[in-house]
Structures are given as structure tokens and as C-alpha cells.
Amino acid sequence: MRKNIVVNLICEVALRLFLFAVFLITETLTPFHRIIHPEEMWLYKNPRSERDTVPTWHMFVSDIGDHCVPPRPSQPRPDYFYRCFPDGVVTEDMQCTGDPGSIMEGRKSFPSGHSSFAFAGLGFTTFYLGGKLHCFTSRGRGKGWRLCATLLPVYIAAMIALSRACDYRHHWQDVVAGSLIGLTVAYTSYRQHYPSLSDQDCHKPYPKTKLSTTQERKLSNPAFKLDV
């Protein structure tokens, strides 16, 4: 038993180290260079915002998923024009004159990392609260405060996602895709540990070890006694 626990722990640590290595490698890859035609340049002439509504320092975790397909097939960010030409003057050869790092980041618009991160973390919190409060079972269904408490985290996630469009950091398609990725990860992770939200025992996590028939009968019937 103890040996299995140690092996599982080693596997989990190795997986996390592998994912972190993937993040480091893909972060340095050159993103896909999409040709921008003159008639669509208006899509990328939005003003640059010096500060994000939601800070970016904690976003490296979600980037592992967002960077997993190298090179990233992405259109430029809405503020790409002023990343490429900070003074607003286009050169004859259409070569960017801005900061190379900022230009590279300007080509990483799809999907939105903030949106995927927000819906992954806060989406999981919503599923967790929904199970603990029995919002979708006969025990808690129809009680407004339970539903409001359950939906609050995902509402905050939606506001974070919308802020990325308001800051001209992403197109709406990027935000929608990132949100769906995060929500899918959240639900998949939740179901690894808890039953469906409509299950009567949705507040209880799955047992870590398989119970014997006798143990299952004892748990389901407190009056059950084993004759020895």
C-alpha cells in the first residue's frame, strides 16, 4: 500500500515537472506570423493599455495549456499596430520598429490565457460549491442563496475574461475560446474527484481505495453488523 502511494506521488511530481518544461520550451517559440492586409489593419489599431485590469504575473500555469500547440496559430492582438509602430508611422517595407519582445507578445492573441486561467480555477470553485451546497439535488434545489453563492465564482471569471477585450488585449474569439478551454479543464478535473452535481452524494469525494463488499454494505447501512 505504502509503495503504491510513493509511486503515485513520484508520477505526479514527474508530470508537473514535464508540464513546466513544456511551458518553458513553448514560451520561447516564435508565434505564427499571419499576413495582415491593408484593408484589415483597422482591426489592430486599438490603443495600447499600459496596465492590465487583471495582473499577469500568476498566469504561467494556464499558459501550459495555451502554448501546447507550437507554433501558436493566432491572429495579432487588437493593439498590435501600435506595438509594431509605436509612433503610428508605417514604414515603406512594413517592418516593425517597436520593441521585439512586445511585438512577439502581440502575435500571441489566441486563446486568452487570462480567460482560461480564470474559468479553470473559478469554474472548479463553482462546481465544488454546487456539489457541497446541493444546488442541483432535491436537498438544495430552489434556494436562491445557494445558487447565488455557487454562481459567484464563475461570474467573477466572466468579468476577468471580459476585461481582456476591454483592455484591447484580445479579440472576442480569443476570450470565448480561452473560457471554454478553462471551463472544460475545470469540469474534467472536478469529475476526477466528485460525482455528478445531480447525484445525491455530490458533496462526497470518491473513495481513494476500493471498498470491499462488506465495507460498502456497512457504510450504506449503519445497523449492519458482521458476524464473526
TrEMBL record:
Q: Where are the transmembrane segments?
A: 5-25, 117-135, 147-165
SUPFAM superfamilies the UniProt entry points to = Acid phosphatase/Vanadium-dependent haloperoxidase
Main location as per UniProt: membrane
Location in the cell reads: Membrane
Q: Where is this region: Disordered?
A: 205-228
Q: Which UniProt keywords apply?
A: Membrane, Transmembrane, Transmembrane helix
One Pfam family named in its UniProt record? PAP2
Q: What positions does the domain Phosphatidic acid phosphatase type 2/haloperoxidase occupy? A: 56-190
Could you tell me the membrane topology recorded for this protein?
Multi-pass membrane protein
> GO biological process: what's one of them?
phospholipid dephosphorylation
Question: What top-level branch of life does the organism fall under?
Answer: Eukaryota
For molecular function, the Gene Ontology terms on record are:
phosphatidate phosphatase activity
PANTHER family found in the cross-reference section: LIPID PHOSPHATE PHOSPHATASE, RE23632P
Q: Which family does it belong to?
A: Belongs to the PA-phosphatase related phosphoesterase family.
Q: What is this protein called?
A: Phosphatidic acid phosphatase type 2/haloperoxidase domain-containing protein
> Native species of this protein?
Chiloscyllium punctatum (Brownbanded bambooshark)
